[in-house]
């Protein structure tokens, strides 16, 4: 996993508005998933896969 601080995060304005209503834990999980997207080459199936290990490390 790349260092989280070095990942580029891009969000659309409507997305920012909708995630403002999320609870803290789902919001953190969403931020991690978004940070895994390579904006230069987005996944063809629009799916982002996270391992349990990445998720637990991020939430510590």
Automatic annotation (TrEMBL):
Superkingdom of origin organism: Bacteria
GO BP term (any one): DNA replication initiation
Domain annotation Initiator Rep protein WH1: ranges: 8-59
UniProt cross-references to InterPro entries, sorted A to Z: Initiator_Rep_WH1 (IPR000525), WH-like_DNA-bd_sf (IPR036388), WH_DNA-bd_sf (IPR036390)
GO molecular function: DNA-directed DNA polymerase activity
Similarity annotation: Belongs to the initiator RepB protein family.
Protein name, per record: Initiator Rep protein WH1 domain-containing protein
Organism: Lactococcus cremoris subsp. cremoris TIFN3
Lineage: Bacteria, Bacillati, Bacillota, Bacilli, Lactobacillales
């Amino acid at each position: 996993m790349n260092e989280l601080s070095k990942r580029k995060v891009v969000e659309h304005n409507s997305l920012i508005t909708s995630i403002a209503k999320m609870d803290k834990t789902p919001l953190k999980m969403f931020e991690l998933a978004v940070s895994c997207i390579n904006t230069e080459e987005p996944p063809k199936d629009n799916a982002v896969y996270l391992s349990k290990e990445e998720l637990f490390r991020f939430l510590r």
